[in-house]
Amino acid sequence: MLLCGLAGLLLLVAAVVLLTGPLPGATAARDDYRSARPCPAGAGRDEGDCLRDRQATVVEAGAPGESWRQIYRRLSYTTGGHRGEVRLRGGGPVLSAAEPGDRITLTSWRGEVRAVTSAGVREETAAAPTRTPGALAATALALLIAAGMFCWCAYWSARRSRFSRLASPWQLVVPVVACALLAATVFVVGLFGPGLTEVLVFTAVATAVTATAATAVVLLTGRRRTAGSTRSADADSVEIAPERSAEQRCVPVSLSGDVPYDLHGFDYLVIGPGLLAVTTDPTGRVARRPVPPDLEAVRVRPPLRTDPRPPPHHTHLVVECRDGDTPVLIAADRHDIPWILGALRSGA
């Protein structure tokens, strides 16, 4: 609970820093670039806010390259006896038609080449500040969504967890999965291209779709649990039909209880005709410790927060058993539960 709250607070601070620092700066740079005018004749190099053109000759076009956020193509050139290169996003008209020896015009702004023009066709380079706000906005929005997810986990664990004893209640699982998918989608989409407006529109649409899907899941879950409560006195119970195994099986389990066969490392249950034992051997051939044949299965349910030992996986189910008056819990994969029930004495 404390870790979730702390993680949410840190992510929120990171999102606010992005929204109040780099994002406004990148947006301002984009607007300044769009409004920049060509440098006047005889302007010095210190006048960096104007667009400065210079002629160059293509040396090589289309060499692939890759950075942490995008794949691009290199365009190498020479100008004034010096060789340089620019990064183009690929597939543009200039890069597609460029050949070695072609004359091009390089447009610089604030000391970097921002555009290349060839035969009257202009193409922005990867350094042009036209899409940067979109990537920053997507990162900030993804951090905000993740912060909300962690804050909800902390709030629910502190204030609402008394309403469910389940180890993985839907009140946590559904929002966490929905927020994680939404944050990852927004981040990836913003990282690979769209501008600020597109990112905001996509985030709004994706949030609406995700909220609708999560609401549908919650309603279906609630209806199923309500229907289950009419069949059983305990809505947490899971109805699974037992199956008797005609051959020996060894299934991974987590057994807990104040019984002599609850031993450290004995994480497998050997099942077969007239055979029920725990073992440390995944094949079930050696190191067996017998389990009483009168061990009684009471019910199958999801894991609870009050269980003495967490299950190996959150998708596992728990078989509540009784060895005389002693409660015994066997956690196992859902697919192995029928064989376990078939080997135990039914308490129904």
UniProtKB/TrEMBL annotation:
Question: Which UniProt keywords are listed?
Answer: Membrane, Transmembrane, Transmembrane helix
Q: Which domain of life is it from?
A: Bacteria
Indicate the transmembrane segments per the record. 135-158, 170-193, 199-221
UniProt protein name: DUF3592 domain-containing protein
Q: Tell me what organism the protein belongs to.
A: Streptomyces griseoviridis
